[in-house]
């Protein structure tokens, strides 16, 4: 079958009918680390399913490699590529998600009358393209002549790469307008996901939360960056609507602010509205033009949090520190991390890769864009391109330092800061260089 | 007529408890001894985990750290303040034991016949209360039975045991005086101090766990030697076992290991010794035999009490790795030579410690937590600065620091020196549990001229040591390392300014000496308890 590139909306309009049986696939992820693997959910596919069922009337199936089993997503060594060497530093590669054997068994169960007539595979990012490339040949070996399309950010942003490497027949660019189509959890059958991803731009997400909570889902996450942008007109009014609708229900609803809240947008009003529903808060890395932390914004955010008695456990409120930036400086990273430990008690070092846009284009000729898997933030692409002078080994060491400081003892966060005897004594030991006894 | 003996390993009352290596090995040897002398024996091991491997834990009381104040827990208890800790009963507690006794049950619904004798082991001196409570229970349900209490606690505090355990005019006898056929002894409650020589080298009777085999510990304890010639002021090893080194033959140890290996599927062997390397030649021979013996394939060896640093050599390190050790414990305690000297532990040097670490690394112990270093704190008269120094020094070399809180041990020279303080504070043995910081008041007053010491300062240093051990991809962070990250961390931390200025301000006079000047109020306090001024020895490397 010849490879073609088409716009996603056109392709669906022209090729999908009510006689079709569409298999949607959320592929496995091949990566060196994936701390938030349990929050992987193909929201685009789930909304697409609602769209297709409503507007096309076709049958829709889903194979979600990333669906957890007993609360855990499987992880195994990636047999095809067990490790990757990046500038002399070796990283292990893992296959996150269900195995090829599980998928093969799933495909074998189709008969000639039940086999899919269309296959659509998404991917959350471009640099995870390998997961797609491993499973498409398997599909082709089991189901002849079914058009296999790649959809989502990878297909749109790296169209040519997808055409050359994914083994798909069709590369779909752009996205359908899926606003206000809910995530179709019926695709999962009895084994429902443990949380529901939401799009803040949907007008009806409060009702979707109520509907999903009736199915037994308690945890919800917005897959949008900066959910506090225009909070007073977008997020907050709908939170109030949700609270009103949920007031008669005994079901617990818990939101997780996964994608980072802008500290300067976290006001007391925001904190008050979020307090009843949000059980974890992650604050985005906010710096000024001189690349220093906007300390006042963080202090105000924390003050707002405390003013409303928003009492989360120490590991449920964190600050991000971005690492892997072009302008990275070791001392600044460590200082910012300590600052945020003082504010929140927990810090997550968030590795960075440029998003499509100006910065990506600015550095494109330096970055190894021929092998886009190396653009994973976990491989520190700006280091690989020698744009900053921190090594991969040093980023590993920063993770170790962060893990050490993040360690909670008797449920207490690291708090050995100026003003404490511990700080003075550690400082004295470091000044004395006690590891060099003479 | 066959005598029936019920052997009991009591629950533990403490703030924390790790059941690893908690097999009542002394009691199980006594079990073998009794069986050999015609007794029918049964065992109640209150510290045996349940089918899921968990040990029960039940709240007992709340303690004010560093004081004798204890109170019952209210049902509507609020959060603890920083000066309070909760004490639990770990294992099968006395209430559950009483339910069994009331129903006439032993273990797993097996009926118990009234025993003639009850033998109870008692380990840490600060755990004595559970022994007392078990005795009270035994007396309630078997009023005619004769009780024998043995173990570390009665050996180190026989008078305390005599007065406080609730025994009826007990006879205190040494283990070597025990005579099972002596009616004058056997007709009384007994407190047996020190070892029973005939039981010393006997195998542990694992058959007593036959009714609950699946829960039986999957390891055994080996004691291949006894005795330690050292005079460490805070250690009771030479009180318990004497100074003369007595070793078992290698053959007898191997035989014991093989029986456990084949008959009980034991693959983990834990050495519990007074000083394992004191009979180094013997130990090396044993290791050589183990590593070459195909019948002992796949075993793991452990020595969680530590190795005398001075006695480590490369050959030993290599043999230990080859024979099946995967974790080493080194009792560094402190890098403050003054403290080591004060407690007569100045028989090793930092160079020897560093050499020992290198030797074990060369032998193959290269991953984090394979070489573990004990750091002692909570000692009377200590300077917490030295504890931080020691922790950072040790973590830089080994990636695993184990904080050990000091508990004064009765019958040791240090305990005798501190008796005035202990009595003035009104402490009983349970209050001397290191986790309850018995020397908080002592140290707060002694160091007042330098800094203000609080409970939180101890929690902070303990937490600091735990954080040093945190690993990612098998690596820990080295604050004193040579990498740019370590150097950057030091630079940033040393110059760090809080973003919340002027809210707290710890007083710390880094120049003040730990030992108060003669004539100062603190000097009087120290000499009042020490009886003399402490030594002042410069930090030096031998």
Descriptive tags:
heterodimer, A: 438 residues, 6-stranded parallel beta sheet, globular, B: 542 residues, alpha/beta, 4-stranded antiparallel beta sheet, 20 strands, 16% strand, disordered C terminus
Order of strands in the sheet with most strands of chain B: 3-1-7-8-10-9
Based on DSSP secondary structure assignment, what is the total number of beta strands of chain A? 17
Query: Hey, roughly how much beta strand do the residues of chain A contain?
Result: 15-25%
Average predicted confidence as pLDDT of chain A:
93
**Hey, roughly how much beta strand do the residues of chain B contain?**
15-25%
Amino- and carboxy-terminal Cα gap of chain B: 64 Å
Explain what this protein looks like in three dimensions:
The complex is a heterodimer of chains A (438) and B (542). Chain A has 15 helices and 17 strands. Chain A has helices at residues 8-15, 43-55, 100-108, 129-142, 153-157, 159-165, 205-214, 235-246, 268-275, 295-307, 330-344, 358-363, 381-384, 392-406, 421-432; strands spanning 4-7, 21-26, 29-31, 59-64, 75-77, 83-86, 89-92, 94-96, 118-121, 148-150, 170-173, 195-198, 219-222, 254-261, 278-283, 317-323, 347-351. The longest helix of chain A has 15 residues, at 330-344. In chain A, the strands form four sheets. A six-stranded parallel β-sheet of chain A has the order 1-11-10-9-2-4, with helices on both faces. Chain A has a six-stranded parallel β-sheet with strand order 12-13-14-15-16-17. Chain A has a three-stranded antiparallel β-sheet with strand order 3-8-5, with helices on one face. With 438 residues, chain A is of the alpha/beta class. Chain B is α/β, with parallel strands linked by helices and 542 residues long. Helix content of chain B is 35%, strand content 16%. Chain B has 20 helices and 20 strands. Chain B has helices spanning 25-36, 94-102, 128-141, 152-156, 158-164, 183-186, 197-200, 237-241, 250-264, 280-292, 314-323, 337-342, 350-363, 384-398, 413-417, 419-425, 440-446, 455-468, 484-494, 521-530, and strands spanning 4-9, 12-14, 40-45, 57-64, 70-71, 84-90, 117-121, 146-150, 171-174, 190-193, 219-222, 225-226, 246-247, 268-271, 300-302, 328-333, 371-377, 401-405, 471-472, 475-476. In chain B, the strands form six sheets. A six-stranded parallel β-sheet of chain B has the order 3-1-7-8-10-9, with helices on both faces. Chain B has a four-stranded antiparallel β-sheet with strand order 2-6-4-5, with no helix packed on it. The interface between A and B is large, with 50 and 56 residues.
């Amino acid at each position: 079958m010849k490879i073609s590139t088409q716009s996603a909306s056109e392709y669906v309009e022209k090729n999908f009918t009510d006689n079709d049986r569409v298999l949607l696939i959320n592929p496995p992820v091949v990566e060196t680390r994936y701390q938030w693997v349990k929050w992987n959910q193909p929201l685009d596919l789930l909304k697409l399913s609602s769209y297709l069922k409503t507007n096309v009337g076709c049958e829709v199936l889903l194979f979600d490699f990333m669906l957890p089993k007993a609360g855990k997503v499987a992880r195994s060594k990636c047999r095809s590529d067990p490790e990757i060497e990046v500038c002399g530093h070796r990283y292990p590669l893992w296959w996150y998600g269900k195995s090829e054997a599980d998928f093969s068994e799933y495909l074998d169960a189709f008969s000639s009358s039940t086999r899919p007539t269309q296959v659509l595979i998404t991917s959350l990012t471009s640099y995870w393209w390998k997961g797609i490339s491993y499973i498409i040949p398997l599909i082709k070996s089991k189901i002849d002549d079914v058009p296999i399309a790649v959809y989502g950010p990878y297909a749109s942003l790296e169209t040519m790469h997808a055409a050359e490497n994914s083994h798909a027949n069709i590369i779909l660019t752009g996205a359908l307008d899926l606003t206000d189509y809910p995530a179709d959890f019926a695709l999962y059958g009895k084994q429902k996901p443990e949380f529901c991803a939401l799009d803040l731009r949907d007008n009806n997400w409060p009702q979707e939360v109520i509907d999903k909570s009736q199915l037994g889902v308690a945890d919800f996450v917005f897959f949008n960056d900066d959910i506090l942008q225009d909070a007073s007109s977008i997020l907050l009014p709908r939170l109030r609507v949700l609270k009103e609708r949920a007031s008669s229900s005994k079901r617990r609803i818990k939101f997780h602010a996964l994608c980072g809240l802008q500290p300067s947008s976290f006001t007391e009003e925001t904190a008050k509205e979020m307090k009843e529903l949000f059980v974890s808060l992650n604050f985005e890395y906010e710096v000024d033009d001189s690349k220093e932390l906007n300390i006042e914004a963080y202090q105000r955010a924390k003050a707002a949090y405390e003013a409303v008695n928003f009492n989360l456990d120490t590991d449920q409120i964190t600050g991000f520190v971005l690492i892997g930036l072009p302008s990275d400086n070791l001392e600044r990273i460590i200082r910012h991390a300590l600052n945020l430990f003082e504010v929140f008690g927990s810090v997550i070092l968030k590795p960075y890769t440029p998003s499509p846009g100006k910065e990506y284009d600015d550095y494109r000729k330096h970055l190894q864009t021929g092998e886009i898997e190396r653009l994973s933030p976990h491989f520190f692409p700006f280091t690989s391109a020698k744009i900053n002078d921190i090594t991969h080994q040093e980023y590993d060491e920063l993770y170790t330092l962060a893990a050490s400081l993040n360690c909670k003892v008797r449920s207490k966060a690291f708090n050995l800061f100026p003003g404490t005897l511990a700080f003075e004594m550690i400082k004295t030991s470091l000044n004395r260089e006690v590891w060099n006894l003479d | 007529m066959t005598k029936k003996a019920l052997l009991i390993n009591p629950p533990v009352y403490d703030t924390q408890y790790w059941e690893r290596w908690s097999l009542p090995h002394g009691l199980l040897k006594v079990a073998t001894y009794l069986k050999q002398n015609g007794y029918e024996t049964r065992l109640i091991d209150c510290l045996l985990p349940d089918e899921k491997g968990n040990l029960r834990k039940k709240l007992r009381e709340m303690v004010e750290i560093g004081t004798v104040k204890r109170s019952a827990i209210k049902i509507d208890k609020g959060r603890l303040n920083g000066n309070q800790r909760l004490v639990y009963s770990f294992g099968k507690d006395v209430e559950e034991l009483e339910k069994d006794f009331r129903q006439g049950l032993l273990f797993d619904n097996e009926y118990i016949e009234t025993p003639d004798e009850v033998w109870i082991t008692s380990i840490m001196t600060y755990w004595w209360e559970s022994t007392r409570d078990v005795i009270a229970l035994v007396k309630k349900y078997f009023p005619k039975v004769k009780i024998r209490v043995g173990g570390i606690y009665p050996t180190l505090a026989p008078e305390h045991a005599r007065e406080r355990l609730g025994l009826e005019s007990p006879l205190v006898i040494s283990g070597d005086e025990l005579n099972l056929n002596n009616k004058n002894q056997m007709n009384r409650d007994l407190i047996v101090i020190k070892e029973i020589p005939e039981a010393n080298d006997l195998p542990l009777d694992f058959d007593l766990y036959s009714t609950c085999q699946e829960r039986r510990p999957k390891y055994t304890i080996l004691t291949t030697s006894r005795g330690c010639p050292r005079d460490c002021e805070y250690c009771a090893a030479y009180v318990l076992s004497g100074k003369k080194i007595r070793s078992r033959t290698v053959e007898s140890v191997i035989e014991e290991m093989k029986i456990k290996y084949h008959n009980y599927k034991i693959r983990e062997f834990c050495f519990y010794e007074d000083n394992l390397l004191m009979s180094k030649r013997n130990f090396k021979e044993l290791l050589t035999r183990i590593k070459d013996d195909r019948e002992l394939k796949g075993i793991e060896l452990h020595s969680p009490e530590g190795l005398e640093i001075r006695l480590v050599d490369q050959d030993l390190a290599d043999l230990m790795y080859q024979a099946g050790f995967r974790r080493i414990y080194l009792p560094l305690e402190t890098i403050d030579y003054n403290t080591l000297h004060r407690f007569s532990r100045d028989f090793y040097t930092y160079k020897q410690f560093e050499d020992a670490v290198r030797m074990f690394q060369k032998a193959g112990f290269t991953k984090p937590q394979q070489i573990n270093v004990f750091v002692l704190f909570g000692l009377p008269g200590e300077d917490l600065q030295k504890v931080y120094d020691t922790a950072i020094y040790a973590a830089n070399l080994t990636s695993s620091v184990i904080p050990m809180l000091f508990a004064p041990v009765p019958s040791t020279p240090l305990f005798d020196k501190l008796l005035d303080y202990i009595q003035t504070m009104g402490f009983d043995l349970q209050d001397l549990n290191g986790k309850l910081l018995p020397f908080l008041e002592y140290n707060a007053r002694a160091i007042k001229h330098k800094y203000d010491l609080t409970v939180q300062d101890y929690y902070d240093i303990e937490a600091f040591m735990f954080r040093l051990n945190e690993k990612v991809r098998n690596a820990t962070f080295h604050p004193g390392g040579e990498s740019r990250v370590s150097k950057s961390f030091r630079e940033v931390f040393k110059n760090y300014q809080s973003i919340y200025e002027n809210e707290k301000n710890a007083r710390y006079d880094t120049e003040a000496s730990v030992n108060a000047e003669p004539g100062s109020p603190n000097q009087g306090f120290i000499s009042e308890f020490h009886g003399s001024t402490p030594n002042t020895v410069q930090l030096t490397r031998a």
